[in-house]
Amino acid sequence: MFWDAYKKSFDAWEKATADLMEVWLRSPLVLEPAGTMLTAAMKAKSMSDKASAMWWASLGLPTKRDQERTLHALNELESRLMDLEEQLDSKRG
Amino acid sequence: MIGLRKVAARLLGGRPPVGTTPAEEVIRENKWRLLRYRREGAPLKHRTPVLLVPSLINRHYVLDLLPGRSFAEYMVQAGHDVFLLDWGTPGPEDRFLTFDTICDRYLGRALRATCRAAGADKAHLLGYCLGGTLTTIHAAAHPERVASLVALAAPINFHDQGLLSIWTRSRAFDVDALVDAFGNAPWPLMQASFHLLKPTLNLVKLKQLVERSADDEFLDSFFAIETWGADNISFPGDCYRRYIRALYQGNELLQGSFTLSGRPVRLEDVRCPTLAVTFQHDHIVPPESCRVLLDRVGSEVTRQIDLSGGHVGAVVSRRAATGLWPQLSAWWAEHELAEAPKAPPARSKKRPDGDRARART
Predict the structure, then answer these.
(1) Is any Cβ of chain B less than 8 angstroms from the Cβ of A5?
(2) What is the complex's ipTM, to 2 decimals?
(3) Which of B105, B206, B339, B360 has a CA positioned 20 to 30 A from the CA of residue A63?
């Protein structure tokens, strides 16, 4: 009895809340400031990363980005080799 | 009380046995690998292999959830030669991976390897969610190896009324700032966005859990799906940038201006039989966003299966095992290219008629 009443009131509350939140989450009044804050936070992170990379590079050491580029180049090389292997196989076959 | 004890036992019992159908690795490149499910006694009734392509941002085992509740396992038992593309986990260096590399080179290689391993000229492609967008684009650019295409809750029209579409088109969303800051689009940020799509969903799930805590089968599925849902993957940075700009913001796939490795991608170039599976309560990919594919492709055979349920539940639920899965197996059997090998007679599976399916030929 109590559980049924609870379920009914929960369902009603949930639907009303979900509908209301969806209206908010579609509204430019919410989206614009939230997006602006998120973008500002991300730009701040980029700037801080860039500053630390510059300091690191000034010591003559490879930065995180340098290592990422190198690893990516190795992966690309592996892909090219696989392309060549496939081409050779298809010519043999 | 017994129910709560069962919940506690599962919470303390560790990870559910997800993704355990036996499979062998066919090929591996960078982080992705191609899996081929072992038949282990199940007869091969259909020669044309099936390649399953899940979303880039979720683990592949959503299609192989639990023993006895696995889509891949079901298809193997139904006599299909099942392959699955596991995208793996991108590392920081994969921020430079482009959309073209993933959709053209990686998916193309997986498709060729599938055909080679199965000894077939073509394969059936099934793409789930973003995987469906990738397979559709690939099938339009390289139709030669695609026997049929299944777009399972795949976004095709990105300018819909869904929240994801509205957020990504908002002026305040700066995709460059995100990729420059993080490299890969971080999974916690994407997971938070998915939670925001339906902020009350976790409370609804909690209520359901209390209500059905004595039901072992429900609990097994619940914890498996929750395990999968919390196990997300970051989106390779450059690929994400193009995905948002060209598809979400520009809707280029539908407008016919999208290119893959410099080659124009036109949906009308998809000429193989095409099936769109949509879910009526899908709050991630609204049904119309996927269904529009059927109006645009050049295929002579198109079909829509429109089911009740949500984006994930309708694919992995108990009901899917008797509704969606047999219909997909029947679709592939119907569009079998080669003559089926001789196999001992198998149990026939009745095609359910509870869900709407409409054919257009």
Answers:
(1) no
(2) 0.91
(3) B105
